[in-house]
Amino acid sequence: MNVISPNNLSTVLVIDDETRSQDAIRRTLDEDFNVLTAGSADEGRAVLERQQVAVVLCDQRMPGMTGVQFLKEVRERWPDVVRIVISGYTDSEDIIEGINEAGIYQYLLKPWLPDHLLDTVRRAVDARSLQSDMHRINLELRTSAPVLRARAAERQAVVRDAFDFRRIVRAPGSPMDQVCEIATRIARYDLSVLVLGESGSGKELLARAIHYASPRAPRAFVMENCAAMSETLLESELFGHKRGSFTGAYEDHVGLFQRADGGTVFLDEIGDTSPGFQVKLLRVLQEGEVRPVGATRAIPVNVRVIAATHRNLEEDVRAGRFRQDLYYRLAGMTLSMPPLRERSGDIPLIADALLQQASRELGKPAIRFTPGAVAAMMAYPWPGNIRELRNEIFRALALSDSDEVAAHAFSSKVLQGQPGTTTLNGRHAPGHAGIPQSGTLQERLDAIEAVILKETLLRYRWNKTHASKELGLSRVGLRGKLVRFGLEEK
């Protein structure tokens, strides 16, 4: 038996009567753990009485008693120690019979693979560490429960406020006002919601706002992009799986539906799922229970489902690409997110919020966009919506040499604009960065001036005093220009 080392939560005790087996295991684990060895149950017991050990690795066949018999004793006397038994194929039935009574974490068959042994012990040590943390947390909870409850309530209030519908950036009169109004009304009811809209239009943000405005807000909000993985992986991720149910399933996995029990599951890009998965999801929604892959029993779950897609699901239903019964299960209420090109009045405010975010994340000071930059952003149709706008702003700030972001920092596609972009007073006209391709020079200059006036007023929430100060105009001069360009009535 080797010399006992100081206490260590990463200490592993190996009990095997064969010295060669001890040495092989030691060589596999030595770089990551403090490895102690013992040649019998009596020697192992002596180590445990003097030494703090995280994991016991025990051979099944030992003189005097079996590994399972010894691990039963370990469970009674040292319940925090994680127990692993190693055996040959002929001993597996005896181990299975005693695995619950001994509380064995896992058993390994000979000949074991070094990588598998190392991975198993790592997970066992992590489990021990997690168990210790849970004991500590439980003790803290018992001694300071009132304080923690108060802090939890404060954190919940902060989260609710962060995802409130008011935090969805938009200008007065935005098309998003009606969407948010309807979503606010239905949030308190346990209806399934289907959110339609182009990629990057903010469907996830709306789903979070619905969750945190609902009675389910104290529980989890989880999300999964259904287009990002295969049917098998998606089923495992959402519904869970049992250890050994397929190749690579080394341990039980709790699915997102179970983790969100009492809360909300957001399924993004639901329209891209396979017919096979649609059948399984429909069964979950109808029966209110999930069956993990490889499990024999279903588990009841209570979740609200919010689904989203960029596809036209009604058309997919007619074409047979999407199940009609699942569609009606998901579409208890349907909300349509307008693309950014249809809410150009929101662009200055959204861009300003993204600029402040970029400033914090990149560590670069940023005060404002130049009028030319705003005009360029409002002239471009943003096919990638808010996600594309965010990327352009981060790029522009990274390339800017001052605290102002100018139009030349944007990519060429934004500077060139696209046909059909919104310009003066919401009318559509082809052009480059908001400049019409036809008309006199004065008419083109008027178009640019109108865009700048509109952007400035939107940014200051139509406060004419602040807007006139920034533009270097008197209030009378500003009002005259608003009347001239037909903006005063707004």
UniProtKB/TrEMBL annotation:
Location of the Sigma-54 factor interaction domain: 169-398
GO MF entry, a single one: sequence-specific DNA binding
Name of the protein in question: Chemotaxis protein CheY
Keywords annotated in UniProt: ATP-binding, DNA-binding, Nucleotide-binding, Phosphoprotein, Transcription, Transcription regulation
InterPro entries tied to this protein: AAA+_ATPase (IPR003593), AAA_lid_NorR (IPR058031), CheY-like_superfamily (IPR011006), Homeodomain-like_sf (IPR009057), HTH_Fis (IPR002197), P-loop_NTPase (IPR027417), Sig_transdc_resp-reg_receiver (IPR001789), Sigma_54_int (IPR002078)
GO biological process: phosphorelay signal transduction system; regulation of DNA-templated transcription
Modified residues annotated as 4-aspartylphosphate in this record: D59
Residue ranges of domain Response regulatory in the record: 11-125
PROSITE patterns: RESPONSE_REGULATORY, SIGMA54_INTERACT_1, SIGMA54_INTERACT_2, SIGMA54_INTERACT_3, SIGMA54_INTERACT_4
